[in-house]
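Hi Y.,

Following your request, here is the sequence exactly as I used it, all 71 residues.
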Amino acid sequence: GWAAHGGENWPNPAGDYPRVMRLLLEAGANPDAPNTWGEHPIDLAGRNRELSDMLWAAGGRSRVERDVDDS
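Below is the corresponding structure, written out as tokens. Let me know if you'd prefer a different format.
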């Protein structure tokens, strides 16, 4: 979640957020695990297309998609 959030909201020009995300996912991180406030990584990635696409490919889903699935 923090890599997705930082990559969208406070990106460090020297930061390699896609690499961090890839390493976390390869290590078994859950791409859909909510944080303490119930926010999911793909929602935190916001408009960062590279990060949200990576999370989507790994099984992450957005708040809207979960709401539709629950109806």
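The two ends are 26 Å apart (CA to CA).

Thanks again,
Q.
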